[in-house]
Automatic annotation (TrEMBL):
Ranges where the Histidine kinase domain occurs: 251-466
GO CC aspect terms: plasma membrane
Top-level EC class: transferase
Keywords noted in UniProt: Kinase, Membrane, Phosphoprotein, Transferase, Transmembrane, Transmembrane helix
Species, as recorded: Roseovarius atlanticus
SUPFAM superfamilies: ATPase domain of HSP90 chaperone/DNA topoisomerase II/histidine kinase, Homodimeric domain of signal transducing histidine kinase, Periplasmic binding protein-like II
Stored PROSITE patterns: HIS_KIN
InterPro entries in the cross-refs: 2CSK_N, HATPase_C_sf, HATPase_dom, His_kinase_dom, HisK_dim/P_dom, HisK_dim/P_sf, Sig_transdc_His_kin-like_C, TCS_sensor_his_kinase
EC number from the UniProt entry: 2.7.13.3
Protein name: histidine kinase
Length: 803
């Protein structure tokens, strides 16, 4: 086929594809996707906005005006409504528009044109580095100054809304994908119709004989005319390349045939010679020709090998200095090198700084050819110098000799195949051609010139591989051990209780040291709220769940994804930032000498009646937490108050019996063991059980109606210096190994219980599983941290205790 393509007209492939895709995709995908994204946002906002508005209304209803001014009794139900969203942080405030703040965060953002209205106002704004969705709801109340507006502002972060928007959008896209398939059908039809010329080209090429390199004939559309031209251009280049290959093969055959014919001629003349001297002369010439033939064959094989190995994907790190030394040692064993002065200068390059990305076999072949060329073309007492120098980015390898060199006019063709510039050297004309092929395969530079010794100077410049990067990435190479890491834990848990866990973690993480700092719950909370961050811990642990939730709600925690195997129950985790790892029921510790197991009340209601009926008997002999000083005591008391009105009645009864208050469980248990107390109420079960085990006169008692359960919680602060180590420690606490250590080696109780329980309290828990009421990690715990709510609760508590 020799005829070319004619004309440049024809239908437009681009127009067909654009029209079809515009109908099938631009209208369906772009327009519908944009509308779908907007609809998904509105759908995600709607239920959460209803929660915000409902919460605001429930708080508005609890605003009252008295002789001392307006106040608000924050309802627990308000925060529980917000807890239906298990992900987002919450903010609130109750205020007088344009006036004072009653409670909550006073610096929440608000629209500049906000006017009091009974209709909810919804908007989004940034606060504390996060995006929030706010609602402001107002109502009028009668005050001493007349009718006055009061407003409630509630805010939630938008993490769950964003996730739901993406989920709605992705789900809807499944239906959109079905419509897209219709569009793809149109595109397929258009492509099938438009690409018919290409199928014709494919059929033409498939039917051709291997030797047929004629042009492709056809009248292609304008859009693929360039492709036709490129195919024809490639066929032409392939033809030229085949011609070059055939020429090379012919040259090789000619060179080999000529050399073998010359050797055969010398041998034939030697056979016909009668004179021994003439025969010897002919044999010597045949031997020289045989040597030249062998060298030519070796050079041809070397040239083929170098071309075959020139693929850069096979290159790997190679150290040049030892490679050069090895090839020099090999060459010096050749008898031809006896009178040659061969030297190597490495410029003081240090180990690891002579690295390149290369092929050692090809480089050795190139260097061997350079030395052999210098020996062959130079005088018998030739001097050959090899030097290696390093710059910041390159390695320069030079081979210089004291031979005749190459004339400047011949330098350009010296690297061409079968080009021998000396008739007396028995050269094959392939030596420098092989060197050129090696440098091309390595992306290196090759230059020829006059050497400092007067002969030929050959310079090879390779790109340097900076070995120092490997030393940085692999510090073990340098022989310097990596410094140990320190994990700083601030905790409101007794050090002896956590020590077995710390030792096991340090044993697992050999290069980690744990620095454990013990706090009281309130002190730890205040330390985390302090502005200075010079001593920020990596993990924060506390039994005061409400204080921990408050710290996380303020945005102080780092999100941590635990594995499925270590994930705690849903009630013991919030926002993937706060994690519970123990099971701590509240318990009654009693003195068996003062009260029998049988007469202990079985419910909280009966406890109030029991104390009232035995008031003189137990006067001054009942203990409980001082909730003004103990975070866990305040948590237990507020959670009891949510279980019904009997809690206030119980406080009053205990107050009339001169209730004694303590800072911690250990003091309550010790006082009971000494006989000062008949029983202690709402002690931490794990600590109490550990002390009761060594006191024969003490017992543990659980109620049948409910028993509050708290969990010690841990989180990683955002400013943690060892956040990854902190995540590993929390994962360890919740792992099977960590929970087993908690059960067997600490006074604490594991969150996840396995197998038969051996301890007394473990068996009691197993027997009464239905009576335990876990305190959930939700924003509901923030209710009693509100300043007004806390003051009211503390006032009621102190009044009940007659303080």
């Amino acid at each position: 086929m020799t005829s070319g393509m004619t004309g440049s007209g024809g239908h437009s492939l681009q127009r067909r594809l654009l029209v079809t895709m515009a109908l099938g995709f631009v209208i369906l995908l772009m327009l519908i996707s944009a509308l779908l994204w907007t609809y998904a946002r509105a759908s995600a906002n709607r239920p959460h906005d209803l929660l915000l508005a409902g919460t605001a209304l429930s708080i508005l209803e609890r605003i009252s005006v008295g002789p001392d001014g307006a106040t608000v009794d924050l309802p627990n139900s308000a925060m529980e409504i917000l807890s239906l969203n298990p992900v987002d942080r919450v903010l609130y405030r109750v205020f007088v528009p344009g006036g004072r703040n009653l409670t909550g965060a006073a610096d929440l953002p608000a629209p500049s044109d906000l006017a009091p209205s009974a209709e909810p106002v919804l908007f989004e704004d940034a606060y504390g580095g996060a995006q929030f969705r706010f609602v402001i709801q107002s109502r009028q109340l009668s005050t001493a100054e007349g009718r006055q507006w009061f407003a409630v502002q509630i805010g939630q972060t938008v993490e769950l809304r964003n996730a739901e928007q993406l989920s709605f959008f992705a789900t809807s896209l499944v239906g959109l994908a079905g419509l897209s398939l219709i569009g793809l059908g149109f595109v397929w039809v258009a492509i099938r119709t438009s690409l018919a010329p290409l199928r014709q080209v494919a059929a033409d090429l498939a039917q051709r004989e291997p030797a047929d390199l004629g042009r492709v004939v056809g009248t292609p559309p304008r859009e693929i005319k360039g492709l036709f031209d490129a195919i024809n251009g490639f066929i032409e280049r392939l033809g030229r390349n085949r011609a070059l290959t055939e020429t090379f093969i012919a040259d090789v055959a000619h060179q080999t045939r000529t050399s073998l014919s010359a050797m055969q001629g010398h041998l034939s003349l030697a056979v016909d010679a009668d004179d021994p001297a003439q025969m010897r002369s002919r044999l010597i010439k045949a031997d020289r020709q045989a040597t030249r033939t062998v060298r030519l064959t070796n050079q041809l094989l070397a040239n083929a090998m170098v071309i075959h190995r020139s693929d850069r994907s096979n290159l790997e790190p190679v150290a040049l200095r030892p490679l050069v030394r090895d090839i020099l040692a090999e060459m010096l064993r050749d008898s031809r090198m006896r009178h040659i002065s061969l030297s190597f200068l490495d410029g003081g390059i240090e180990a690891g700084q002579d690295m390149i990305l290369g092929d050692a076999v090809s480089i050795r072949e190139a260097l061997r050819n350079l030395i052999e060329n210098a020996v062959r073309h130079g005088p018998p007492d030739n001097t050959v110098t090899i030097s290696l120098e390093a710059t910041d980015t390159e390695l320069v390898l030079k081979v210089e000799d004291a031979g005749p060199g190459i004339a400047e006019a011949d330098l350009a063709r010296a690297t061409q195949r079968f080009t021998s510039l000396s008739e007396n050297s028995m050269g094959s004309g392939l030596g420098l051609s092989i060197v050129k092929a090696v440098t091309d395969g390595h992306g290196a530079d090759l230059s020829l010139g006059r050497s400092s010794l007067g002969g030929l100077g050959v310079t090879l410049i390779f790109k340097r591989l900076l070995a120092v990067l490997f030393l940085v990435l692999c510090p073990v190479w340098s022989g310097t051990p990596a410094p140990a890491d320190t994990l700083v834990i601030h905790s409101a848990t007794d050090t002896p209780a956590m020590q077995p866990l710390i030792e096991a973690f340090e044993s697992r993480m050999a290069e980690v040291d744990v620095e454990y700092v013990e706090f009281q719950t309130l002190d730890l909370y205040r330390a985390m709220l302090a502005e200075a961050d010079t001593a920020r811990p990596d993990v924060v642990i506390s039994s005061a769940m409400d204080l921990q939730v408050d710290l996380v709600n303020r945005g102080l925690a780092l999100r941590t994804q635990l594995s499925v195997q270590t994930a705690p129950p849903s009630w013991a985790v919030w926002r993937s930032e706060l994690f519970g790892f123990t099971f701590e029921p509240a318990v009654v510790v009693y003195d068996t000498r003062a009260i029998s197991k049988e007469e202990l009340p079985v419910s909280h209601r009966e406890l109030a009646t029991f104390v009232r009926d035995n008031e003189e008997r137990f006067r001054g002999r009942i203990g409980a937490y001082d909730i003004a000083q103990s975070g866990i005591g305040y948590l237990y008391a507020t959670q009891d108050s949510l279980q019904g009105p009997q809690s206030l009645r119980l406080f009053e009864v205990l107050g009339r019996a001169d209730l004694k208050t303590y800072c911690c469980t250990s003091e309550m248990v010790e006082a009971t063991a000494r006989g000062e107390l008949a029983f202690a109420f709402n002690a931490i079960g794990s600590y109490a059980a550990a002390q009761v085990a060594s006191e024969p006169n003490l017992g543990l008692h659980f109620f049948d109606d409910y028993n509050l359960v708290m969990t010690r919680t841990a989180f990683i602060p955002k400013e943690a210096r060892q956040a990854e180590l902190g995540a590993r420690f929390i994962e360890f606490l919740l792992s099977r190994e960590g929970q087993r250590i908690i059960a067997d080696k600490t006074p604490l109780l594991p969150l996840i219980r396995e197998g038969e329980q051996q301890s007394l309290i473990g068996r009691e828990i197993q027997a009464r599983l239905g009576t335990f009421l876990p305190i959930r990690l939700t924003p509901g715990l923030l209710t009693y941290l509100d300043e007004l709510k806390r003051n009211d609760f503390m006032s009621a508590w102190e009044t009940s205790l007659r303080r």
